[in-house]
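#struct-pred

JT: dropping the chains for the assembly here, can someone run the whole complex?
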Amino acid sequence: MSPIEPTVPAGTPLLDVVGLRKSFGSTEVLRSVDLSVSAGQVLAIIGPSGSGKTTALRCLNGLEVADGGTITIGRAPTVDFGVTPSKAQLASLRDQSAMVFQHYNLFPHKTAIENIIEGPLVVQRRPEAEVRAEALELLERVGLADKRDTYPFELSGGQQQRVGIVRALALRPRLLLFDEPTSALDPELVGDVLGLIKELALEGWTMVIVTHELQFAREVAHEVAFIDGGTVVERGRPDQLLREPQHERTRQFLRRLLHPF
Amino acid sequence: MDQSSWELFVASLRPLVVAAVTATIPLALISFAGGLALALVLALMRLSSRRWLSGVARAYISVVRGTPLLVQLFVIFYGLPSVGVVIPPWPSAILAFVINVGGYAAEIIRAAILSVPKGQWEAAYMVGMSRSVALRRIILPQAARVSVPPLSNTFISLVKDTSLASLILVTEMFREAQRIAAFSQEFMLLYIEAGLIYWLICLVLSSLQSALETRLDRYVAH
Ligand SMILES: Nc1ncnc2c1ncn2[C@@H]1O[C@H](COP(=O)(O)OP(=O)(O)OP(=O)(O)O)[C@@H](O)[C@H]1O
Ligand SMILES: [Mg+2]
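RK: done, full complex below.
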């Protein structure tokens, strides 16, 4: 079904993060984050606002340079942030993953298809005909083939985010990173995007998803990690962690999320 | 206007327009192109994390914007020969205008680059681009739209400022008007005629600016 098959056999470890640290000035945002995901698995990250979820994800994609700890993704050699990593190390890390942003971040001066082929064509230097065909196939599959020559501002939020997801897929990453992919969407558009992500999970894509949609996490994730105060407080199978959390902080967080009033 | 004034007006039109087309406009275009290139370099220096680079650019911009264009022209044409550097009128004028436009446009380009949302840099890095590729393919095209109105103003000012080149012996339109005026003793008529032609050029430029803005607006939400 998917034109781009995930490239690592299921079960082998694909992401391994140990002791990740990151501070902004004197604020320590990530104190020590450990995460791991096997190929073909989905990890959902939940946690209160400001707990460092986005920062952790950005470190994985090299958008933020961690201050300490190690990250291993796919076939890239382990990067140890105890010493300042080289540009080449960061690049090889970044090559392994692709990110879907909360606010889509599509390129406004490029059409849907141009947004999608930009990386494969300009950075990866793959043949244009092949890249275009693949992008079209992907657009078709998310129901946006007729929007290929449309600029982002003419698309709804849900359509923009689907283009954002296709842009990430077209990079042929080993790991997909989602930062609250539906939190900027109107409620009636959320379903489409979550449905698409669920399909990708079923196809065997390896994903890390930061989300506030607990029902979605329960259905899609193989594991849920609860982050608070810059560290993973608790992780486990979704039914376990969401139903019978072990830590008081997790319980409090879930209670507040389920009963906000 | 009496008969003979009218005839002089019509007769002067041709040499003035010729001077505008062969001198004023090329002088403005060449200087603007050079100035923009310099401005881009200065803007990137200003945005550099290397302190000395941004310091040099900042000092340059401060000096250029803090001194009169006329002084800059005179330093280059009348001042430099006393230290042994003699530059003919045309290159002197172009050099001064490039230096001047560079200083003004640098701040415009810098502000335009900074106005592009941070998420655009992040998306560009995410798809694997280096800083320079991201700048060229993602950031500058978006900054361009933002900087069209202020850069158009700079260009329109430049077109009018080329008249200052007459003071360093460049035969552009205004110097041609001065020549005809001195010869015919019709100062009022000739200077107003020159002013009208400048005005006309600026009207055309303004409408070109609007067209360019509309064109670049295609993909921008309102
Ligand atoms: N570039 C930055 N400079 C300074 N502080 C930052 C920066 N980025 C994030 N922070 C701070 O780090 C903390 C964690 O931010 P982060 O965005 O990772 O939280 P989050 O868990 O994603 O929150 P949310 O659920 O609201 O998205 C916050 O206190 C934030 O203010
Ligand atoms: Mg966040």
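JT: nice. The pocket of magnesium ion (ligand 2) is lined by residues A 53-54, 179 (CB under 6 Å). Chain B is about 80% helix and 0% strand.
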